[in-house]
Amino acid sequence: MNATAPHPAPVRLTAPIRLAVIGGGITGLAAAHRAIELCTAAELPLALTLFEDQSRLGGLFGSEQIGDYLIERGADSFITNKPHGLHLCRRLGLEDQLIPTNARFRRSLILCHGRPVPTPAGFHLIAPAQLWPMLTTPLLSWRGKVRLLQERLIPRKRLAGDESLADFTRRRFGSEVLDRIVQPMVGGIYTSDPEKLSLAATLPRFLEMEQKYGSLIKALRRQPQPSSNGPDIQSASGARYGLFVAFKNGMQQLLDTLEQRIVLHTQHRAEPRVTSLLRKERVWQLTTAHGRTREFDGVILALPAHAAAELLKETSPECSRRLRRIESASSAIVVTVHDLATIRHPLDAFGLVIPAVEHRKILAVSFLSRKFEGRAPAGKIILRTFVGGAMQPEELVPDDEQLLGTVTGELASLFGISTRPEVALVTRYPNGMPQYHVGHLDRIRMIEELSQKIPQLELAGNFFRGVGIPDCIQSGEEAAERLIKELSCQKRENSENGESST
Question: What is the pairing mode between strands 351-353 and 109-112?
């Protein structure tokens, strides 16, 4: 054996990796961008096609400038304690464009017997970090307050198995805390029924707190004190608003920057939906409603669960069947602009959530221009009203004009708005929110096991393990990382064996 023999030169790929990303929402954009990053760094040739049947990219969010108003049709911000959103912004050169929430109005309101009242200071989604605000809030009766104080005496759950948000909250804090505070706050995030919502799939850290400390109140009170620049767990009202950021010029900045990066390396095809996806002779054959068929080495399905299920019904009937079991809820966002002088309520918060026991026709109202500066001129306010969801699907039946009438009527009743909005628009999201029902994580594990058996295909989307923007980015990027690794290894093996790569 010749110890000085040189190592063989690495095989360079000449034929590009042909990759299709189906779905141009934030998940698909993140997947496409990550694939480009990986192939560029490894000097791998890539032929990437992004398929999206809508005229614009971005899926469930995007900004729009209407006169002096910067309006958000979907997500208006993202949380920073999940790192993939911030990491992407850094790589895109957008980190200096991020702005925090407005500290002046950093609190939330909850409707109580027709009146907006502040969320108790220190209440953290489903548990309080302070007791005095809970004892003085009008949200709970004295019976409800006594029951809450008993939480320290409730033993931790010993039985294994998933538990709904409603069952967990009732067990630890009682029905009033669930109905009056937790249901509107957490159920509203997922537009879900708390009786069905899986705590393990949505807020697992509270399960961990229970197991470690026995009491959630004890756990939150033992949290380390924040730094001078960090969020104050003890005094936060509702969501951890100090952790949220947006872009100076709106969430569209992220979409536009991603699209600009992607368009340099790919084809964005705005055409009818993909109707067929078949695996034949080591390639994927993709056909659109126009009847055009193309071949790809790999595919990322960045679609809602029901749409991914439709495309996989022939390739993997069992995976398709399990994807169909993930239910979804429809909702709408009604954006209105008002003159503050015509509103009796000061709207001195980030928004209002509405318990189902109040029997209103809307779920929540977000005060967009209170949350972030630069959205509206002085003296004006942008409201975003949420309608529908799993618990009120009937409210989405009326047409847009009727829906707008319902919303303006509710706003007048709740806040004393005396004039019609200066700007109004309705955005509907049919089947836009996957429902993380009890047992969701088990369903996802089975889907992942089944999809791993499908060669050169990855699934990504908000139906996996999180519905927020960082969750979608993580899902898309990790799908791209797995698939590019698999495809590059296969291409190199083919090249080394002298096989055709086309």
Answer: parallel
Q: Which residues contact residue 359 at a Cβ distance below 8 angstroms, ignoring those fewer than 6 apart?
A: none
Per-residue b or e along 475-495, where b marks 16 or more CB atoms closer than 10 Å to that residue's CB: bbbbbbbebbebbbebbbebb
- State the pTM of this model: 0.91
Collect the ranges in the chain with pLDDT lower than 70: 1-14, 224-240, 267-272, 493-502
In CATH, 120-232 is 3.60.15.10: no
Q: Check residue 269 and give its pLDDT.
A: 62
Q: How high is the pLDDT of residue 265? A: 74
Q: What is residue 185's DSSP assignment?
A: I
Q: pLDDT tens digits, residue range 378-401?
A: 999 999 999 999 999 999 999 999
How far apart are alpha carbons 221 and 176 in whole angstroms?
22
d(CA 29, CA 157): 41
Given a contact cutoff of 8 angstroms between Cβ atoms, the answer to whether 175 and 183 are in contact is: no
Look at the block and give the residue holding tokens 């939150």. Answer: 220
Task: Measure the CA–CA gap between 418 and 111, rounded to whole angstroms.
Answer: 20
- The residues spanned by each domain of the chain are 17-58+251-326+437-496, 77-104+328-433, 120-232
